[in-house]
Specification:
Strand order of the largest sheet: 6-3-2-1-9-8-7
Strand content: over 45%
Distance between the termini: 40 Å
Number of helices: 0
Radius of gyration: 14 Å
Largest sheet: 7 strands, antiparallel
Oligomer: single chain
C-alpha cells in the first residue's frame, strides 16, 4: 500500500497525511498517517516532523518526514483512534487538546518559543 499524497481535504482516506497543531503561546505541529478507517473512526500513526527555517527563536515551517513513510501503513498498532466529525462538509477529528485536519500539502507555521 502506498501513501496518499493527493491534496483532497474533505474526506479521510487510508494513507492520507493528517496535521495537528496545538499550544497556548506556541504552535506545535505534528503529522500523522491514516492507517485504518471505518465509517465512524480513523486510526492515526504519528510520523516525524521536520522543521526548517528556524530563526533561533523557535519559529519555522513544519513538514512531515516522508522517509520510510510507506512502511507505516503496515504498522500493527496505530497510536490513536479518533471519531470522525464533520464541519462545513469537511471531515476532521479532535480531542481536548488538539484539532486534527487533513494536511493541505503546505508547510505549516511552527513555533516552540514560549
Amino acid at each position: 500500500m502506498t501513501v496518499t499524497t493527493l491534496l483532497q481535504t474533505d474526506r479521510f482516506e487510508v494513507g492520507q497525511i493528517v496535521c495537528s497543531s496545538f499550544g497556548y503561546d506556541m504552535t506545535i505541529v505534528e503529522y500523522y498517517v491514516v492507517t485504518r478507517m471505518t465509517k465512524a473512526s480513523i486510526w492515526l500513526q504519528r510520523i516525524n516532523t521536520i522543521v526548517t527555517g528556524d530563526d533561533g527563536r523557535g519559529e519555522g515551517k513544519a513538514m512531515p518526514d516522508m522517509e520510510g513513510f510507506d512502511s507505516l501503513l503496515d504498522f500493527p498498532c496505530p497510536d490513536l483512534r479518533k471519531k470522525i466529525q464533520v464541519s462545513d462538509g469537511k471531515q476532521y477529528v479532535s480531542d481536548t487538546i488538539k484539532a486534527f485536519s487533513i494536511w493541505d500539502g503546505k508547510p505549516q507555521y511552527h513555533n516552540t518559543w514560549d
